[in-house]
Amino acid sequence: MKFRDILKTKIKPELNNIYTEKPCIMPTGIDFGWFCREHALHLFVLGKLLGYEVNICTGDFLVNVPGEKFITSIGDNADHAWCCINNKSPIDISLCLRHIYPMLPDISVVFGTSNIDDSTFKILNFINEDDNKILDLSSSNSNLVVYNEKNRLEFNAIELLKNPYMFLLPPPIGSPKFTEIYCEDIFYKITYHCYKIATENIKPLFSYRDSKSSIKRISKFNPRAKKEIINILEKPASLVRYHTAEIKR
After folding, report:
1. Which of 55, 73, 96, 126 is found 20 to 30 A from 151 (Cα to Cα)?
2. What's this model's pTM, rounded to 2 decimal places?
3. Cα(244)–Cα(249) distance, rounded to whole angstroms?
C-alpha cells in the first residue's frame, strides 16, 4: 500500500480519534481542536522509522470556503504544524474540517499540493509569504487550504520522543501533561502503534474505541515500544529503507 493511502485510511483516522476535539473559544482565540503538533510529532517519527527524510514545518494556514467565514492562524498566538517528507510538503494529518464546514466532505489527508481525490479543496503551499497576501486569498471563489511555511525543523527522533515538550506546547497552568496523565513513554507507544499499523497490517482502533479507551489499549499492548523504536532508529539507514521498500512504492 502506498504511504499516502496508509496515512489516509489508517494513520490519520487513528490519530484524529485520539487527539481531535471540537473547536472551542480560548483566551488566546479559537482553538480548532486539531492538536496539530501532536500529529506532526507522531508523523515525523513514523516517517523516520520508515526510512524517509522528514522535517516538521510550522507556520500559518488559511481555509477559505466561498460564502462562509474563512479560518486562519494568521494574527493568532498559535501557529500550525505539519511535515515535509522526502521534499513533499505539506503533509498534514491533523486538519479536520467536519465541525467547521459540516456541509462539505471532510479532507481525508493533505499530501502535497496535488488535487485530493475525494475533496473539493485545492491545496496551496507558500514559504515565508507575506501574511497580507495569504489573507487576500480569503476572497477567492474556490475552496482553498493554504499553508505558509515559516520554519522547517529537524529533531533527533529519539530525543523528541524522550522530551516531547521540546516541541509540543505545554498545557495550561495547573493542567497535567499528557505524559503525566498516561505514562512517560506514551508518545513512544502511540508512535509504535502507528508503525505497526503501517508495517504489520494490524487493525486500527478508531472504528470501535474512543480516545481514552484507545490510548489505554495502546499503552497496554506496546510495553516494549521505546526499546523497539530505538532499535529501529539506530539501524543503518539502508537497512531501514530496505525494510520499508514495499510501503514506499
Report:
1. 96
2. 0.94
3. 9
